[in-house]
Amino acid sequence: MGALPVPSEVRAILLDIEGTTTPIAFVQETLFPYIKDNVKEYLRTHWEEEECQRDVGLLRKQALEDSSLEGAVLIPLESGSGEEELERVIQAVVDNVHWQMSLDRKNTALKQLQGHIWRTAYAAGHVKGKVFEDVVPAIRKWREAGMKVYIYSSGSIEAQKLLFGYSTEGDILELFDGHFDTTVGPKVESESYRRIAASIGCATNNILFLTDVPREANAAEEANAHVAVVIRPGNAGLTDDEKSYYSLISSFTELFLPSST
Length: 261
Prior knowledge:
Mg(2+) binds at residues 16, 18, 212. This is Enolase-phosphatase E1. Pfam families: Hydrolase. Helix 9 (240-245) links the parallel strand 6 (226-230) and strand 7. This protein is an alpha/beta fold. It has 9 helices and 8 strands. The relative contact order is 0.18.
């Protein structure tokens, strides 16, 4: 690792979040436990709201699609009024969310509800988004050099904006030109990166994707995007083959932009 020259055709830097801009520990030890501990209270408080009902509807539909999977939890419709019936349905939603999270599912239905729960947490000051200290200064430098900067994460776009809008560095949303989540496609499929390039309005080889996950890097590379794998404390280790194959950085400051000279 050390200085990594950015190819001259690169016009946009696409960033993963977990393990790249943000410690995995923040996601695993702060964000996810918050959902598990607070989902029931959130549902009880917001149940009558249209947004909450939409979220539950999406989860119910996802649960039907998952019904053949081991341990899947279906979400019944309310078959009457009364506190007991409401509690029964809410508990099914809670059990479904816990089951999905135990499998590290990344579908839109789950991510949408998680994003809305986190929104209340960030707004109340219960949670602040954590970013590595090299992230903000490096992105400012890239932008000064004329580079566009985008986020691509399996967390919903709303969850991304909350993390950066209520971050330990303050509101840093202005640093990003756009956000992508799994509605554009899974991060391990090359087609997703082609869709992102089309959305940005550039060729895939105008993009440099930074991620900690070799499978994602591989998918981006298959789409002809440039990639670098980010080594951060707490990230999963790489095989010797992966270490020798991929360009590696341990800090955003190691990216060397020709246009900034």
